[in-house]
């Protein structure tokens, strides 16, 4: 039973530390004080007179229960990432800053947005420029002409892309024990960080006549890393050789009829959502045109009505005029 109370107290300490933003020094100090008090309590109190030691359901000093509580909090605080002033996350706040960085990969372009990952090099706050390290996720309206290698300067408040009450998609996938498969024309075109560290296995698929999938080669994490380093220069998939080779068969791990029905419903649902997006874009374009035609409004007032910045409004206005022409 002592182990049960010790573990329960440590778990409560971890839960409490996640809400109480107390420094690590406090948790360590409290743990040491309670540990000393628990040793004193264990050796200087008689079992029969002690309120916890005398009961078979506890058999543990009260100070040691508190020690386990603070130890759990210490472990939680110690596991939190420590950010230094040269880390971009150090400056997350509502204070406007100026960031300078380079687009580190090809931007993703969709019907309604353009997104890119920027490698930040420096940050300027109230005129003071500091060298920092970190990546920034940038979301822009569709059609923005940004490319890999462009150097950008961004101004505004630096905010996190998600909050504690909304888990990122990677955490949700991990909780459901799902994996993500990335289909690429060539393994060597994948970003180095993803190819070596963020992926677990590589399945290189060969095709036969009429692009029919035939057999595949499997590389585990260690051989995948060696393949990326040694084979990238000549796109050679035989340095090193794969762990094993296999062949695709016409077999289903689930009921084929149910799978195809679910796939059909999913495709129809996606098509419906795409139609809704197109309709929404058409409505937004009509409303934008009416605001532009209203001569009683200034550009600043139009941007305020639409709930966007003036820079975004001017970009949309230029695109709108180009479409009319």
Give a concise summary:
The protein has 325 residues and is α+β, with helices and mostly antiparallel strands. It has four domains: 2-79, no CATH class; 88-158, no CATH class; 169-247, no CATH class; 256-324, no CATH class. Helix content is 43%, strand content 19%.
Structure description:
With 325 residues, the chain is α+β, with helices and mostly antiparallel strands. The chain has four domains: 2-79, no CATH class; 88-158, no CATH class; 169-247, no CATH class; 256-324, no CATH class. The chain has helices at residues 2-17, 24-44, 62-79, 169-175, 192-198, 221-231, 256-293, 299-306, 310-324, and strands at residues 93-103, 108-109, 113-125, 128-131, 135-141, 151-158, 202-207, 213-219, 244-247. The strands form two sheets. Strands 1, 2, 3, 4, 5 and 6 form a six-stranded antiparallel beta sheet that branches. It has a three-stranded antiparallel beta sheet with strand order 7-8-9. A hairpin with a 5-residue loop joins strand 7 and strand 8 (213-219). The termini are far apart. The model is unreliable at 163-167 (pLDDT under 50).
